[in-house]
Amino acid sequence: MSSSATGTPSPYYVPQPSRHPAFASFGLLFIIFGAANWINDADWGKYLVLFGMLWLFWVLFQWFRDAARESESGQYSRKIDLSFRWSMSWFIFSEVMFFGAFFTALWWMRAHSVPALGGIDNAILWPDFKAVWPSIAPGTTASPAGIIEPFQVMTPFWLPTINTALLLTSGVTLTIAHHALRAGHRGTTVLWMWVTVLLGLAFALVQGYEYYHAYTGMNLKLSSGAYGSTFFMLTGFHGFHVIIGMLMLLFITLRLMNGHFTADRHFGFEGAAWYWHFVDVVWLFLYTLVYWL
User: Fold this and answer.
1) Burial 227-261 (b: 16+ CB within 10 A, else e)
2) How many distinct structural domains can be found in the chain?
3) H helices then E strands: how many in the chain?
């Protein structure tokens, strides 16, 4: 903790130089280099990706542990807490823009790109193409050039609806845990946090089965035209965010079990909760625009 000339403790904590950023970059280098060679048919690339991920997780574990120790030792003041809140707010705002770009791409394809391809100026080149969304319908073709295999369209019943119920329920259980923490009931908080983590895990497993069914039973793939690419792009990125959020909640739960956080000071919990509720809201938009419309 830095101090002023008068000996009064500074409200800003200045950490010691850390090896963690350099070590994390080292792991990311292995992941990117290995992935680049893996997709170019170098079989050894996947082992390099695995090594890089294990290295990165090891670094992140130590990094998070050090940050938790700093917090629990009382080195974070109210001003630091405020800076964390602003940082998390801007991070979630960047995530809103991230998904906003993908939703805009979906709208542009449905409202502009596909209708333009079905216009009269393209009728001579592609007489069998019909401007419909999803980009396949009886008696029409989704691929004038014949490069896209026939596929089935994903409907909201029943796996997506089950996942919606799981995610919304997890938002409720997380809110119950938050109220229990503010009331000082640590045991109740831990219980409902574990329920929330398990609901998040169930969502990821159901979506994994949905992808398996799409590929094997419906022939719906990432290469299935504009519909397939946008479907997997939106649901896949959201599923990735669910996994990240679930890990955040898992770490918070483990910290709660170790006696971390109090009824008055628990922004680590709140930051993870903000992120999880953001994931819930994005899913509601995705569930409506992708599965229903």
Assistant:
1) bbebbbebbebbbebbeebbebbbbbbebbeeebb
2) 2
3) 8, 0
pTM: 0.87
For the chain, what's the residue count? Answer: 293
Condensed to tens digits (0 to 9), the pLDDT of residues 28-77 reads 999 999 999 998 989 999 999 999 999 999 999 999 999 899 888 888 88
- Asked which of 76, 108, 133 is the last residue of a domain, the reply is 76
Supply 102's token pair.
């993908």
159 & 204 share domain: yes
Q: At what angle do helices 225-257 and 267-286 cross, to 10 degrees?
A: 160
Residues 218 and 116 in one domain: yes
> In the numeric block, which tokens belong to residue 16?
């010691």
Question: How many whole angstroms separate alpha carbon 56 and alpha carbon 34?
Answer: 14
Type of residue numbered 202? A
Amino acid at 165: A
What are the phi and psi torsion angles at 145 (to 5°)? -85, -5
CA distance 12 to 14: 6
- Nearest Cα neighbor of 238 from 203, 271, 265, 214 is 203
| Residue 72 domain boundaries | 10-76
SS3 16: coil
